[in-house]
C-alpha cells in the first residue's frame, strides 16, 4: 500500500515538474496532460505585459515583455521563452544566419505623451508604466497625446573651450534637445565688450545645424575659418523654444603663430 502511494506521489510530482516552465536550455520540454488545478496562481497585476499561457499552453504565466525573447515559428531554438504580452508581436531580430532570435516588439511604435507629463517611446512602454503606477497605487497614467510631451530646451552636450592659432579652423558644437525642436543662436562677446549674434552673413564665421543624433535633438556648429586674434572671446550657444531658453558658453583663445 505504502509503495503504491509513493509511486503515485512520485508520478504527480513529476507531472507538476513538467508544468513548471523549463529554463534548462537543452532539455526539451515535455508537456503532460493539462490540469489547470495544478497551475500556480499568477495574477494579471503581477505581470507588466499581462498574462499568457505557458509553453505547454496550460497554465497562465506572465507574458514576455517588450524586447524579451519569444518563440517564433521560423526560429528553431531548443529553449522556449513563451508568448508576447498585450500589444506586442514576436518578431525576428536581425541576428546571424546561424543564430537567429526573436523578441517581443510593440505593435504601436509612436512616441506618446503620458498624463504624467513624461514622453514614452511607444504604447507598450506607457502601458508598463501605467501598470506599475497602478500596482504602487500612484495616480493612473493614460495617453494624453500621440506625440512627445512639450519640453523646454536642454543643452545636452555643451560647447567646449578651444585654444588654437591664427589661421586655423575652429568648430564649436552645441547639442540641444527639446519639443518643439529649439532654435539655436550663438552670441559672441569680445573682451572689449563687443557682441555679435550668429548666424550673420559673415562668410568666415558660419553656423551649421543638423537634426539628431536622436529625435528631438539637434546639433548646431559654429565654424570659424582662418581664425583671427579678434575672434578671441566668449561664445554662447542659446537654445530657445516656446517653453523656454537654455544657454552654455565656451571660450575661444587665439594664439599668434609666432607665439609658438
Ligand atoms: C586647430 O586648428 C587645426 C588646423 O585648422 C585643426 O585641424 C584643429 O582641429 C583645431 N583644433 C581645435 C581644438 O579646434
UniProtKB/TrEMBL annotation:
IGFBP N-terminal domain boundaries: 27-107
Main location: secreted
GO cellular component term of the entry, any: extracellular region
Subcellular location: Secreted
A molecular function GO annotation: insulin-like growth factor binding
BP terms from Gene Ontology: regulation of cell growth; regulation of signal transduction
Gene3D superfamilies: 3.30.60.30, 4.10.40.20, Immunoglobulins
Domain Ig-like: 153-255
Kazal-like domain ranges (all copies): 85-151
Pfam families per record: I-set (PF07679), IGFBP (PF00219), Kazal_2 (PF07648)
Signal sequence residues: 1-20
PROSITE patterns reported for this sequence: IG_LIKE, IGFBP_N_2, KAZAL_2
Keywords: Disulfide bond, Immunoglobulin domain, Secreted, Signal
Cited PANTHER family: INSULIN-LIKE GROWTH FACTOR BINDING PROTEIN-RELATED (PTHR14186), INSULIN-LIKE GROWTH FACTOR-BINDING PROTEIN 7 (PTHR14186:SF19)
Protein name (Swiss-Prot/TrEMBL): IGFBP-related protein 1
